[in-house]
Fold this sequence. Notes:
It is built from 1 helix and no strands. By secondary structure, the chain is mostly helical. It has a domain at 1-9 and 17-37. The protein starts with 17 loop residues before the first helix and ends in a 16-residue tail after the last helix.
Amino acid sequence: MLLSRGLAYPTYYWTLFADLRSHLTATVVQALRSVGIHAVDVTNTGFDVP
């Protein structure tokens, strides 16, 4: 769910099943095309603390 919303970075381990890795990758690609993956990332711009 987080990957499909562009809210998480995918991490793949060598032992992850290939079919699962393919499914996760397809989900990330779809998120990239539809919502702009990591659209609310403020790593480089910062944020306000109330």
